[in-house]
Structures are given as structure tokens and as C-alpha cells.
Amino acid sequence: MASTKRRGVGGVAVVPMAVIRLGVAAIVVLGAGVIGARAQLRMGFYDESCPAAERIVGEYVRQHVRRVPTVAAALLRLHYHDCFVRGCDASILLNSTGAGAGHGDGGSVAEKDAAPNQTLRGFDFIDSVKGLVEAACPGVVSCADVLALAARDAVTAIGGPSWRVPTGRRDGTVSSMQEALAEIPSPAMSFPELAALFASKGLGVRDLVWLSGAHTIGIAHCSSFADRLYAGAGANGNGTDPPPLDAAYAANLRERKCRTAGDGVVEMDPGSYLTFDLGYYRAVLKHRGLLRSDAALITNAAARADIAGVVASPPEVFFQVFGRSMARLGTVQVKTGSEGEIRKNCAVVNSH
Ligand code: HEM
Ligand SMILES: *[C@@H]1O[C@H](CO)[C@@H](O)[C@H](O)[C@H]1NC(C)=O
Ligand SMILES: *[C@@H]1O[C@H](CO)[C@@H](O)[C@H](O)[C@H]1NC(C)=O
Ligand SMILES: CC(=O)N[C@H]1CO[C@H](CO)[C@@H](O)[C@@H]1O
Q: What GO biological process terms are annotated to this protein in UniProt (predicted)?
């Protein structure tokens, strides 16, 4: 505990009780529900087979994120969606093969084309990085590892946290729209529903709370939360919304960015949507979290207290707990060893 305390707040003299409690809780969570395959990933998996791999990914990411910082949010979300469907196996990157194209499993309409994925971005970016890695070491580095590394490097490049990304993930060969619809949390879900879905991935309630902090960067379309602005709009029906969006903020959105329930976009952390900071949690505490799933976080007393504790602490504390949860997310149901394949082109399975 003492060493965690030191790492957690590095250099900060006074450690609030809430921070100590967070640190202890995180360790307890780490010990529970460990997923079997995570042990088979390891740091520097490509050190011999493709020593340049991690450097190629990092350099490409830093170069492009400098010019197009919104890429960071795109890659982070892509990695998360990948891990939630069939594990972190790059199945999210596969194109649909057309109805009846015969994967034999009925999964020919890919995850990419499921409704929650229609706002995913960054596919071309990953294809480009993978192309560079393939040029250096053909057939060695998985798309799943490229995505995990690129997401981490992009978040770090915008001044956000870093975390350890052990490698050795293998790529899956199946991508299914139906599974994506079932396994990716809907923004309309309540806290217990979100917690149950995270638990099914071996992730705890605190992982839910800290990973949601990813919404400190990026944007949401009005359609993703329109039911909080307009009764009857959106997938969630009748506009019941505990707790509701702050009334003044909702009115402002209706007048400006979301005049209709449709296509407008809103920064999830207004004013600092390109900066990895505590703005998102501050907004959530003020009932200005855009999505119902954001608002849901403070319906749970313990989660609300954790968020208040992190908001009152130096940003390094958020960075640390976020990084830990990202490291765990990156190990969800990974394929290793001789499972799956190393895809040559991230959009299509290899032909055998
Ligand atoms: C807890 C359940 C979650 C729900 C229900 C959820 C839902 C959503 C929705 C609806 C959007 C907006 C999409 C749009 O309208 O364009 C969004 C954006 C985003 N989400 Fe989540 N999310 C969740 C958790 C996460 C996690 C765990 C991460 C990553 C660790 C993440 C990262 C992001 C990012 C970075 C964006 C912005 C994407 C962009 O700017 O293009 N989300 N999320
Ligand atoms: C995958 O789909 C995208 C968008 O539909 C397309 O641009 C790309 O060429 C496809 N890739 C392959 C390898 O078929
Ligand atoms: C409206 O929302 C409430 C609370 O979630 C739910 O019990 C009810 O079934 C909903 N009604 C309709 C018509 O969707
Ligand atoms: C990025 C991406 O692949 N988006 C797709 C999401 O699904 C729709 C169809 O439902 C496609 O038209 C998009 O291209």
C-alpha cells in the first residue's frame, strides 16, 4: 500500500484520504476476476521477431496526432469496442463479407456495421500503421497489438496517461454485428446494467468508473443522447431519465448544437475535448455528462464518492487509475499462442 501511495501521487506531499482509499481499492480489484489468457501476453513480445514494431507505431501515431488530435479519441474508442466483442482480437477491424458469404457461423455482417459502430473512426489510420509494420516485418505483428499500442500512444501523445501494453495478441477470424449489438454497452443503460456487462468481461465497477473517464476526450452525436433532450426521441423511448441532464445545459443544447435529435456533434467535455483532464468527471458531478451512461455513474453512491475523490486530487491520480484499468481492458479474452492468426490486412482474414 505504501508503495502504491508513493507511485500514485508522485511528488505530491499531502495525500487525501480518498486517494489512499482509491489506491487500495484498485489493488483489491486487480486481484479479482483475472482472465486466464492475460498471463500469456508479455512486454516486448516482438523484441526479437520485429524489434522496430513498437517504435514504428509510436512514431506514426505521434506524427499524426500532432496534426489531427481527434485521432486519439477515435483510436481509444476503437480499442475499447474491439475488446468488448470476442476479446481484443481486432475483429472490430474486419469488413463485412456480404450476406451469405459463408463464414459458416452466420457472422458475415461485421461488427463494424453494427449501429454502435457507425460513429467509430480510425479504421484507415490503423490500416496505414499496419502497412508500415508489415513492410518492416511481414506477417509478424497482429492487428490487435497494433490497435492496442496505437490507442495507448495516441492518448499519451495528447498529454494523457501512459500504461503498459504487453503484446502477443492474435487476430480473430470472425466478426459479427449481432454480437457487437449484444456486447457493447448502450448509452441508455443504467449503472447496474453497465456494471453487469463490464463484469461479464472480467472488469469491475471501478474499471467502469475510470474507463468512462475516456469521455474526457472526443465527441458524441446528438442522436446518442437525444432522448435526454426531446421526449420520445432516440432508442430509449419515453424520455424517463434519472438523473436528468442539467436543465440549463439541456436547453442550451436544444437551442444550439442539437436543434434536432439527429446529426449534430457535441464535445463530451466541452472546452477541453482534446485534453485528457478531469473536466469530464466535473461535468458528470454537475449533471452535465452527455450520455445516460455518464449520468448513471453518480447513481451509485460508491462510484460517486470515487469520482468526487479523483476530482479533488491531482490529475496524476486519474491518470494512474485510468491506466491500470486500460491495461486490464487490453487483456480481455485475448487470443494468444497458436489461436487465431496474424492478419496481413486488418480489414480481411487471411486466405488459407
Ligand atoms: C460505459 C459504457 C460506455 C458507453 C455506453 C459509451 C458510449 C459512447 C457513445 C454513445 C459515444 C458517442 C458516439 C457518437 O455519438 O459519436 C461514445 C464516444 C466515445 N467513447 Fe464511449 N462509451 C462507454 C465507455 C467507453 C470506454 C470504456 C471508452 C474507452 C476506454 C470509451 C471511449 C470513447 C471515446 C474516446 C469516445 C469519443 C469518440 C470520438 O470522438 O469519435 N467509451 N461512447
Ligand atoms: C473494407 O471496407 C472499406 C469501406 O467499405 C473499403 O474502403 C476497403 O477497401 C475495404 N477493405 C478491403 C481489404 O476489402
Ligand atoms: C418508460 O420508462 C419506464 C422506466 O424506465 C418503463 O418502466 C416504461 O416501460 C417505459 N414506457 C414505455 C412506453 O416505453
Ligand atoms: C466506419 C464504418 O464501417 N461504418 C459503417 C457502420 O455501419 C453502416 C451500416 O450499418 C455502414 O454504412 C458504415 O460504413
A: hydrogen peroxide catabolic process; response to oxidative stress
This prediction's pTM:
0.85
* Location of C-alpha cell 488530435: 69
Whether the predicted pLDDT of 257 surpasses 60 = yes
Q: What is the pLDDT of residues 278-287, one digit of tens each?
A: 999 999 999 9
Query: Is CATH 3.20.20.140 the right assignment for the domain spanning 31-184?
Result: no
Looking at residue 139, the DSSP 8-state letter turns out to be T
What span, in angstroms and rounded, lies between the C-alpha atoms of 204 and 303?
11
Is residue 110 within 6 Å of ligand 2 at its C-beta?
A: no
| Ligand 1 atom 20: residue of nearest CA | 77
Q: Where are the beta strands (DSSP E) in 136-245?
A: 219-221
Q: Answer yes or no: same fold for 31-184 and 207-324.
A: no
In DSSP terms, which residues pair with 220 in a beta bridge? 266
Annotated binding site for Ca(2+): which residue ranges? 82, 85, 87, 89, 91, 111, 216, 269, 277
| Residue 34 scores a pLDDT above 90 | no
What is the full DSSP assignment across 238-251? Answer: S---SSPP-HHHHH
d(CA 15, CA 19): 7
If one compares 322 and 24, the residue with the highest pLDDT of the two is 322
Whether the pLDDT of residue 237 is over 50: the answer is: no
Task: Locate the domains of the chain by residue range.
Answer: 31-184, 207-324
